[in-house]
Write a structure and sequence with these properties.
The protein is α+β, with helices and mostly antiparallel strands. It is built from two helices and five strands. It has a single domain, classed as Aminopeptidase, CATH 3.40.630.30.
Length: about 90
Protein backbone atom coordinates (compact mmCIF):
# COMPACT_ATOMS: atom_id res chain seq x y z
CA UNK A 1 0.00 0.00 0.00
CA UNK A 2 1.14 3.53 -0.72
CA UNK A 3 1.03 6.15 2.02
CA UNK A 4 1.12 9.93 1.98
CA UNK A 5 4.14 10.97 4.01
CA UNK A 6 4.05 14.50 5.37
CA UNK A 7 7.30 16.24 6.24
CA UNK A 8 7.03 18.68 9.13
CA UNK A 9 10.42 20.39 9.14
CA UNK A 10 9.54 22.59 12.13
CA UNK A 11 9.43 19.57 14.44
CA UNK A 12 11.82 17.40 12.38
CA UNK A 13 9.36 14.61 11.65
CA UNK A 14 8.01 12.59 8.76
CA UNK A 15 4.42 11.55 9.46
CA UNK A 16 1.74 9.24 8.13
CA UNK A 17 -1.85 9.69 9.29
CA UNK A 18 -3.84 6.45 8.99
CA UNK A 19 -7.07 5.26 10.63
CA UNK A 20 -7.13 8.22 13.01
CA UNK A 21 -3.59 7.56 14.25
CA UNK A 22 -0.18 8.98 13.47
CA UNK A 23 3.02 7.08 12.74
CA UNK A 24 6.21 9.10 12.56
CA UNK A 25 9.95 9.14 12.08
CA UNK A 26 11.76 11.65 14.30
CA UNK A 27 15.10 12.99 13.12
CA UNK A 28 17.70 15.63 13.90
CA UNK A 29 19.94 17.48 11.45
CA UNK A 30 23.48 18.07 12.68
CA UNK A 31 26.45 19.20 10.59
CA UNK A 32 25.19 17.77 7.31
CA UNK A 33 24.02 14.53 8.93
CA UNK A 34 20.43 13.35 9.24
CA UNK A 35 20.19 11.34 12.46
CA UNK A 36 17.16 9.06 12.52
CA UNK A 37 16.24 8.98 16.19
CA UNK A 38 12.91 7.12 16.40
CA UNK A 39 10.46 5.38 14.12
CA UNK A 40 7.11 5.07 15.88
CA UNK A 41 4.18 3.10 14.46
CA UNK A 42 1.14 2.48 16.70
CA UNK A 43 0.39 -1.23 17.24
CA UNK A 44 -2.81 -1.29 15.13
CA UNK A 45 -0.80 0.04 12.14
CA UNK A 46 2.17 -2.32 12.42
CA UNK A 47 3.02 -4.64 9.56
CA UNK A 48 1.60 -2.41 6.83
CA UNK A 49 4.85 -0.96 5.48
CA UNK A 50 4.39 2.43 7.13
CA UNK A 51 7.80 2.44 8.85
CA UNK A 52 9.40 1.63 5.50
CA UNK A 53 7.53 4.49 3.79
CA UNK A 54 8.70 6.89 6.50
CA UNK A 55 12.32 5.75 6.27
CA UNK A 56 12.34 5.93 2.47
CA UNK A 57 11.00 9.50 2.69
CA UNK A 58 13.84 10.40 5.07
CA UNK A 59 16.37 8.81 2.69
CA UNK A 60 14.99 10.80 -0.27
CA UNK A 61 15.17 13.99 1.81
CA UNK A 62 18.80 13.29 2.75
CA UNK A 63 19.65 12.58 -0.89
CA UNK A 64 18.11 15.85 -2.11
CA UNK A 65 19.83 17.82 0.68
CA UNK A 66 23.15 16.00 0.00
CA UNK A 67 23.27 14.80 3.61
CA UNK A 68 24.58 11.61 5.13
CA UNK A 69 22.37 9.44 7.34
CA UNK A 70 23.17 8.13 10.80
CA UNK A 71 20.52 5.56 11.78
CA UNK A 72 20.20 5.53 15.56
CA UNK A 73 16.86 3.77 16.06
CA UNK A 74 16.79 0.00 15.72
CA UNK A 75 14.27 -0.01 12.86
CA UNK A 76 16.35 2.40 10.78
CA UNK A 77 19.51 0.36 11.39
CA UNK A 78 17.71 -2.78 10.19
CA UNK A 79 16.18 -0.97 7.21
CA UNK A 80 19.53 0.28 5.91
CA UNK A 81 21.12 -3.15 6.43
CA UNK A 82 18.40 -4.71 4.25
CA UNK A 83 18.30 -1.99 1.58
CA UNK A 84 21.77 -1.77 0.10
CA UNK A 85 20.65 0.79 -2.49
CA UNK A 86 20.92 3.44 0.25
CA UNK A 87 24.44 2.44 1.34
CA UNK A 88 26.04 5.56 -0.17
CA UNK A 89 23.89 7.73 2.12
CA UNK A 90 25.14 6.17 5.34
CA UNK A 91 27.73 7.88 7.48
CA UNK A 92 30.71 5.58 7.71
Amino acid sequence: MEYTVIHDEKIERFEVFESGQVAYLQYAEKDGVLEILHTIVPSPLEGRGIAQALTEAAARYALVKKMKIRPICSYAKMFFTRHAQYKELLLE
